[in-house]
Amino acid sequence: MILDGKCPTGPIEKTWDKHRFDMKLVNPSNKRKYKILVVGTGLAGGAAAASLGELGYNVEAFCYQDSPRRAHSIAAQGGINAAKNYPNDGDSIYRLFYDTIKGGDFRAREADVWRLAQVSNNIIDQCVAQGVPFARDYAGYLDNRSFGGAQVSRTFYARGQTGQQLLLGAYSALARQIKAGTVKMFPRTEMLDLIVVDGEAKGITVRDMVTGEIRSHVGDAVVLCTGGYVNVFYLSTNAMGCSVTAAWKAHRKGAFFANPCYTQIHPTCIPQHGDKQSKLTLMSESLRNDGRCWAPKKKGEKRGPNEIPEEERDYYLERKYPSFGNLAPRDIASRAAKEQCDDDRGVGPGGRGVYLDFADSIKRLGEDTIRERYGNLFEMYEKITDENGYKVPMRIYPAPHYSMGGLWVDYNCESNVPGLFVLGEANFSVHGANRLGASALMQGLADGYFVIPYTIANYLAKTAPGKVKADNPECKKSVDDVNNNMKKLISINGKKTVSEFHRELGKIMWENVGMARSDQSCKEALKKIPVLREEFWKNVKVSGSGAQFNQDLENAGRVADFLEFAELLTRDALYRNESCGGHFRVEHQMPDGEAKRDDENFCHAAAWEFKGANAEPELHIEPLKFENVHLAIRSYK
Amino acid sequence: MSHDKTMNLTLHVWRQKGPKDPGKFEVYDAKDVSPDQSFLEMLDEVNEDLIKAGKDPIAFDHDCREGICGMCSQVINGMAHGGQDRTTVCQLHMRMFKDGDTIYIEPWRARAFPVIKDLVVDRIALDTIIQAGGYTSAHTGGIADGNAILVPKPEAEYAMDAAECIGCGACVAGCPNGSAMLFTSAKVSQLAVLPQGQAEAARRVKEMTETLQECGFGNCTNHYECQAACPKGINVKFIAKLNREYLKSLF
């Protein structure tokens, strides 16, 4: 099937304004008759639930954490982009749009990206009004910093905790609606199924993580804001609870999954210390504003970093990309770090690391200025590594961080299942094959504050409120299915723990479908994943019962879904026989090692339809048209 | 840097089936612990052994494991988050301990935080306090340009110092009165100092402090244990600010 993104036509600058006018509206007094289920309360979900509640809809919001303030958006450090052009350095909506399309290696929809750039300015205003304490100068004006993939300073920030402050802004708006009674909040509640009635999304089945109760909630529309899936690699910068489960359950119920192979490996993470590690920690890309990446020139270098003289250091990003230097986009910076290590010039345990050196900046600006800018990051680095980044260069290595792929949605953020909307990292829409720094926060809030309030009305206006009641047979069936799945997980009583399976899956994925992929490695993974999945269902050991607080059971369900999803990700990586952005196929590279796209055959989104856990999914294609930014080889030199 | 030496530790962990069940300490061995592991990774290993032995693993809250989400919450050797300066449990590393140590692990203990299971407590009361007024009533859309409201750097920094609170509840767990005054004052102060928050400042401080009492938190008697326990270094000066704001609101 050829998919239609339903993008508005005409001059790109007018598309969103025109579309807003063309969409249907729901009368203010009718809004309260509609119930909207919002799953996930990060930037996208928190903003959506708050904004929809404000409009007068009857909203139920769900999160697996104990409070909506804890979603993993909170961990974003560096900042949020907007095309304000406050520094007068040449920024514009068009430039943000252009940088995002180019940064995504020409694999995102133009109209969606335009809208993102257009509303970016509203986001800053909104957050300021909420009391988000953005960095300011002494006169009181908003301050900006630079980020990778851009030559203008358009990133707004709140120390190294921008995600936290933006999330707390959305959380406070949500709190206000909870108090007002327009939003009912269900914390410690995990979505385990999507309820589809007559082809439309009309509810979800959830597990109360405290009592273990499985129950369904019906509504007139479902909004999934459930984040990304890079925990499929086991070690990643995601929170421990981040999973593909909600998205995967929706996929199993008919929603197409688009471009799952687009995963972002972030260049500046703290290297792994041992095999008992549970997660990796990111350090903001903003560090690359003042830190210089280097590796020793000599192979197998044994000296400490401060003993290696200047002329024996290779500042490889500055050498390879003189115009962007240390601010090259993430995919490029990650691969460059891997290249140094593969060349036996890596540093630290196992030689899997490169230096991020602040000595020059400290000399130029003083340690106090660096501390003011990144103090919390240096502190975090020291806690984890026991090293002082002001005195010794930090060691960094790339780690799975973000998923550009996600559930397929049209321009309205609506999936192919009517009534199912998907926002933020959970959808596939705006980042193409690589996301630029400080753009995830922008997308989450754009979708939640400024897109869904309009586009959901267009759907609801065409549907009568309360069409599906709680006694619908689909609800009972869904609850039974979830219950049976839980029972099955517990009844296996095998020998291996859930974490052991997750770790093994992560190893398969990182080695074969990680930073570099090949026809052969993908095929290897496709052989191993089903074997591991089969073993899981025969030999996993899950403790306790379903009718209680049971973290082992929660985790088992998530890993079971990763074991299915991993195969789809790999299949997509095998299918996409080109390199683009974060998807690097070793067969397709330029003579200098850069990613080589194949626009003739792959200038499209690949959206997969579920056909059964052990059956091949069906591929649907949405061609991408570039009418404003011309397809070109991405160059940051 | 990696250390070769591993440690063996004895853990006394609070186990409690549910809010109404009696709890007690159980003793576990943590073996071959690497100094580079985080405290939670050490507990992960203990749990792996418990699961394999067919026993109930220790329940504890955690999520981001980078010290920012505020989910992790354990009292270690009598100190909320383990007593390392400005550090959450998830960022506590085993190099802080030595071979042969005995470690006591308990949940947050406060009247307003009932135990759900083992080390997991219900902190919904903190959300209830925020819902009482911890926001500006800015409606989505139709907002003036961000630079239309000037916030001089000192005020912005002061607001940010307060806004860093991660809502973990360590201040409550550390306080002999089980007071959430530091938590509440951080939000009150952040919004009171910013021009955006001033219109509602009086109503906010009144309603948040009233809710604080209704939720079963104790009052502040200036022990400053909250500041010592806070993993984000939130300063008790914000409690003084809250008191000033409260007095102002009466006039």
Q: What is shown here, in short?
A:
With 637 residues, chain A is of the alpha/beta class. Chain A is built from 17 helices and 21 strands.
Q: What is this structure's SSE topology?
A:
The complex is a heterodimer of chains A (637) and B (251).
Chain A: H1 15-22, H2 28-31, E1 35-39, H3 43-55, E2 58-62, E3 80-81, H4 93-103, H5 110-130, E4 155-156, H6 162-180, E5 183-186, E6 189-197, E7 200-208, E8 214-218, E9 221-224, H7 245-252, E10 257-258, E11 263-269, E12 292-296, E13 313-314, H8 316-320, H9 330-342, E14 354-357, H10 359-365, H11 367-385, E15 394-403, E16 406-407, E17 420-422, H12 440-460, H13 473-492, E18 496-497, H14 498-513, H15 519-539, E19 540-541, H16 551-575, H17 599-602, E20 604-609, E21 618-623
Parallel strand pairs in A: 1-2, 1-9, 2-5, 9-17, 18-19
Antiparallel strand pairs in A: 3-4, 6-7, 7-8, 10-16, 10-20, 11-15, 12-13, 12-14, 14-15, 20-21
Helix pairs in contact in A: 3-6, 3-12, 4-5, 5-12, 10-11, 14-15, 14-16, 15-16
Chain B: E1 7-15, E2 24-33, H1 39-52, E3 75-76, E4 79-80, E5 102-106, E6 115-117, E7 120-121, H2 124-131, H3 153-163, H4 170-174, H5 181-193, H6 201-214, H7 225-229, H8 237-249
Parallel strand pairs in B: 1-5
Antiparallel strand pairs in B: 1-2, 3-4, 3-5, 6-7
Characterise the protein shown here:
The complex is a heterodimer of chains A (637) and B (251). Chain A has 637 residues and is of the alpha/beta class. Chain A has 3 domains: 258 residues, FAD/NAD(P)-binding domain; 133 residues, Flavocytochrome C3, Chain A, domain 1 (Alpha-Beta Complex); 124 residues, Fumarate reductase/succinate dehydrogenase flavoprotein-like, C-terminal domain (Methane Monooxygenase Hydroxylase, Chain G, domain 1, Up-down Bundle), CATH 1.20.58.100. Chain A is 37% helix and 15% strand. Chain A is built from 17 helices and 21 strands. Chain A has a 5-stranded parallel β-sheet with strand order 5-2-1-9-17. A 5-stranded antiparallel β-sheet of chain A has the order 11-15-14-12-13. In chain A, strands 16-10-20-21 form a 4-stranded antiparallel β-sheet. In chain A, a hairpin with an 8-residue loop joins strand 20 and strand 21. In chain A, helix 3 packs parallel to helix 6. Chain A is globular, with a radius of gyration of 24 Å. The two termini of chain A are 39 Å apart. By secondary structure, chain B is an alpha+beta fold. Chain B folds into 2 domains: 111 residues, Roll (Ubiquitin-like (UB roll)), CATH 3.10.20; 119 residues, Fumarate Reductase Iron-sulfur Protein, Chain B, domain 2. Chain B has 8 helices and 7 strands; from the N terminus they run ββαβββββααααααα. A 5-stranded mixed β-sheet of chain B has the order 2-1-5-3-4. The longest helix of chain B has 14 residues. Chain B is elongated. Chains A and B meet through helix 3, helix 5, helix 6, helix 11 and helix 12 of A and helix 1, helix 2 and helix 3 of B.
